[in-house]
Amino acid sequence: VQLVESGGGLVQAGGSLRLSCVTSGFTFDDYAIGWFRQAPGKEREGVSCISTNDGRRYYTDSVKGRFTISTDNAKNTVYLQMNSLKPEDTAVYSCNAKRGAWDDYWGQGTQVTVSS
């Protein structure tokens, strides 16, 4: 099983980034895929997730209206489009695939830094 994130970087406040999570080694449609982030000195928090079989989406309140999660099921890839970025969005963003209580996989993360 592999989840490989990309698309992070340094951007000014108000800018945009699109994160990608390319997955392999499991049945994509059977999992919920989520994006989490962890800033220095803070606990990891859930940002957004999507059910790959029915498209249901969830966003944490702080990113609603600014971030959009989407999938390309043919490519087993999940995207996180991040607009109107703020300095408080600075964190390592990681992709997670979860099914039930036992199947839980993580990527290595990608750094997003938003300068003021």
What descriptors fit this protein?
mainly beta, four-stranded antiparallel beta sheet, seven-stranded mixed beta sheet, 116 residues
Characterization of the model:
This protein is mostly beta strands and 116 residues long. The protein has no helices and eleven strands. It has strands at 2-6, 9-12, 17-24, 32-38, 45-51, 57-59, 67-72, 77-82, 91-99, 103-106, 110-115. Strands 2, 4, 5, 6, 9, 10 and 11 form a seven-stranded mixed β-sheet that branches. A four-stranded antiparallel β-sheet has the order 1-3-8-7, with no helix packed on it. It is globular. The model has no long low-confidence stretch (mean pLDDT 96).
Architecture blueprint of SSEs:
Blueprint: E1 2-6, E2 9-12, E3 17-24, E4 32-38, E5 45-51, E6 57-59, E7 67-72, E8 77-82, E9 91-99, E10 103-106, E11 110-115
Parallel strand pairs: 2-11
Antiparallel strand pairs: 1-3, 3-8, 4-5, 4-9, 5-6, 7-8, 9-10, 9-11
Tell me roughly what share of residues is in helical segments.
under 10%
The strand count comes to 11
Overall mean pLDDT score? 96
User: How would a textbook summarize the main sheet?
Assistant: 7 strands, mixed
DSSP helical segment count = 0
Large-scale geometry: globular
Low-confidence regions:
none
The secondary-structure element order is EEEEEEEEEEE
How far is it from the N-terminal to the C-terminal residue, by CA? Answer: 37 Å
The class by helix and strand makeup works out as mainly beta
